[in-house]
Amino acid sequence: MFRFGGFRSLTFFVVLRWFLIALAALWVLAALSLVAARWIDPPTTAVHMERRVQAWIHGRPYRERYEFVPLRDISPDLQHAVIAAEDGRFYEHHGFDWHAIEIAAEGDMEGGRIRGGSTLTQQLVKNLFFGTGRSVLRKGAEFALVPVAELVLGKRRILELYLNEVEWGPGIYGAEAASRSYYGTAARNVGREQAARLAAILPAPLKRRPERMNRYSGLILERMRQMGW
Fold it and tell me: Of 102, 113, 165, 224, which has the fewest beta carbons less than 10 angstroms from its beta carbon?
């Protein structure tokens, strides 16, 4: 009995060791991908692939609209609207906005949360590597990669990647595809009102439509004014 217990304990630690080695290897691979993303535009993301698989499983047609454009080709109004809506302290934090996380946690406890406390950097890492699923393991991996993204990418590149990779509707990814799909124009031509409406659908892109975002887009415009935009 003792020998069997000892063997079982040894097996457990061997499995745990290899599990931790595999996790470390995956982290290194993801970190290297972030380094590459400083210069190379990602051809796809975990969210893109997840939506393709979901459509295939349910037998639904799937058309992906995605065009990566430089940040200079995205309207400053759209850049500002997204920051105001999703991460008002984007240029002040280093990947985590602890104040926003605290407010989101309080909202959860009170049942009145409007949006989460995730920063643009956290959302970018999630979109690139983890998709839309939620788990403690995914959150821990995201937590470990966010400082790497902040360090190797910088704020401008993070914003450029986020605006090009984020989901903006069924099969719609990035500011260029969203601007052309909803307004028939390039992202560089989007005005303040249109920008606020596009930013307003980001928390639930598969359910919301810009033309229905009257109240929330108004709040975003007010935040932009308060931030000097």
Answer: 102
Query: pLDDT tens digits, residue range 122-151?
Result: 999 999 999 988 878 778 888 999 999 999
Question: Measured between alpha carbons, how far is 101 from 99 in angstroms, rounded to an integer?
Answer: 5
Q: Side chain identity at 219, as an amino acid letter?
A: L
Higher pLDDT, 14 or 109: 14
* Tokens representing residue 111 in the block: 């049942």
Q: Rounding to the nearest 10 degrees, give the CA dihedral for residues 58, 62, 67, 71.
A: -40
Top CATH class of 42-226 equals: mainly alpha
Decide if 227 contacts 215 (C-beta within 8 A).
no
Identity (one letter) of the amino acid at 142?
E
Q: Give the three-state DSSP class for 154.
A: helix
Concatenated DSSP letters of 17-53: HHHHHHHHHHHHHHHHHHHHHTTS--S--HHHHHHHH
